[in-house]
Automatic annotation (TrEMBL):
Region (Disordered): 160-183
Alphabetic keyword roster: Membrane, Transmembrane, Transmembrane helix
Protein name: Putative esterase
Source organism per UniProt: Rhodococcus coprophilus
Top-level taxonomy: Bacteria, Bacillati, Actinomycetota, Actinomycetes, Mycobacteriales
Molecular function GO labels: acyltransferase activity, transferring groups other than amino-acyl groups
Keyword Aminoacyl-tRNA synthetase appears in the UniProt entry: no
Length: 444
């Protein structure tokens, strides 16, 4: 749905900037003050103090459940996430407390409405503060789930075209038609785990402008993976994929890679470590099922030299794993802020819970071990890290050195930021020219 004028400007407001975070904090403080302030001695003595104790207890319990018991993430959550969560819990505790201490407020609609709105405001600000930490939804539009890119249905029109005499045109000699679209488009399709049996969520696929020409050239492929937790939509929202690819295509006759946003985990919080195990055959899915499906359902260059795999955080780790375990499928990779090794939090837990205590099985899937053991003279890759990413930088630098020693042609790109989408979107933008050169899509 197109938006313009004032509504469009509101939707395009950035909500992850420092100014936005300051505004969220100020509004949250104001909302908490409204909820806490009251001319009632009993409330002032018991209300805010009790609500604070309840908040601390709830946040500490949640931290224990998330970090120790459930462990849905391989790394601890930043403390600021718990701080913002605590603000939301405190608002709800104060709201409930206002009605417990003086039930008469229930019959004053104006007071009730004001208190509820104050609590909602604090919760929205808390969500905004957490979102700003990761830069996952950079604008109001993104936060509301309103796309700013063109979409097309996945149908027969996207299937491989009958090859003209002499085969599909080479991108280097291909000339764009006059009616070539100015932007690419995104479609969605189920990519089944025909060989792996892996249960994957639907893939999103970016098709560059050149894909909508007749005849269309055989284009290279980038399989791009999200983090954990994450979804196949993440690169479209926080990762700004369409903006980056459309910008490159606009200066290159509409040519850019077909980008397949495949599901590398099977669920928002699932963590199969990009290996074949009892958690799911994620490695076979990404190295066999996805390429087979893409080659049979889309018109792309089938040559592995025109294929790359990349990802952010968990997805970056997975990309490097695939590059070292299946260099015949993915001789080119992008590792954006990947971990030093596949992990569920620590090596002992990982080997026990995923590999059944078999350390050698872990080593067969660990990039550092494989780079020390094997040579990869035909592989190339890019490592991207945030300037302030103190948790991932050292491991990534060690992997880059190991990759170089193993014969890979690799480089490290540093961009401003920490471990968030501002790094991953900027990193992808910086690496697209190198990637397209590597895959045979040099600008004319």
């Amino acid at each position: 749905m197109p938006w313009s004028g004032f509504a469009g400007r509101v939707l395009d407001l950035h909500i992850t900037t420092t100014a936005a975070v300051v505004l969220f904090a100020a509004a949250a403080v104001a909302g908490l003050f409204v909820l806490a302030a009251r001319r009632n001695r009993r409330w002032l003595l018991l209300g805010p103090a009790t609500a604070s104790v309840v908040t601390v207890a709830v946040v500490v319990l949640a931290a224990v459940v998330v970090e120790v018991v459930w462990r849905p993430f391989p790394d601890p959550l930043p403390k600021i996430v718990y701080a913002w969560s605590g603000a939301a819990v405190l608002a709800l505790a104060l709201l409930i407390g206002r009605f417990v201490v003086r039930r008469r407020d229930r019959w004053r609609p104006l007071v009730v409405t004001g208190l509820v709105l104050a609590a909602v405001l604090v919760c929205i600000c808390a969500a905004g503060g957490i979102n700003a930490q990761f830069d996952a939804y950079p604008t109001v539009r993104a936060a509301l789930g309103i796309s700013d890119y063109r979409t097309v249905p996945f149908d027969a029109a996207l299937a491989p075209q009958p090859e003209p005499d002499g085969g599909a045109p080479n991108p280097g000699s291909w000339s764009p038609p006059a009616d070539l679209p100015t932007t690419g488009a995104v479609t969605e399709a189920d990519v089944p785990g025909a060989v792996s049996g892996f249960s994957a969520r639907a893939a999103r696929i970016y098709l560059p402008p050149a894909y909508f020409a007749t005849p269309r050239p055989d284009l290279p492929v980038l399989v791009l993976l999200a983090g954990q937790p994450g979804s196949t939509e993440d690169w479209l929202v926080g990762g700004k994929l369409t903006r980056t690819m459309d910008a490159y295509a606009s200066g290159n006759r509409g040519l850019a890679p077909v980008v397949v946003l495949a599901d590398g985990t099977g669920g928002q919080f699932a963590n199969p470590l990009c290996v074949d195990s009892h958690l799911g055959n994620a490695a076979t899915y990404l190295a066999v099922d996805v390429p087979d499906w893409v080659r049979s359902h889309l018109q792309v260059n089938p040559d592995p030299r025109a294929w790359a795999v990349g990802g952010l955080s968990y997805g970056g780790t997975c990309a490097l794993q695939l590059a070292v375990t299946r260099p015949d499928v993915y001789p080119t990779f992008l590792d954006l802020s990947g971990q030093a090794e596949p992990t569920l939090g620590d090596r002992e837990t990982t080997i026990r819970d995923v590999f059944g205590g078999d350390a050698e099985a872990f080593a067969r899937n660990n990039p550092a071990d494989l780079l020390a053991k094997n040579r990869y003279p035909d592989s190339a890759g890019a490592f991207v890290v945030g300037r302030d990413d103190t948790d991932y930088r050292s491991g990534l630098e060690q992997l880059a050195a190991a990759a170089t020693a193993a014969g890979m042609d690799v480089h490290i790109t540093e961009v401003p930021g920490a471990h968030d989408f501002s790094v991953w979107s900027a990193g992808l933008e910086k690496e697209v020219p190198w990637l397209c050169h590597r895959l045979g899509l040099d600008p004319s």
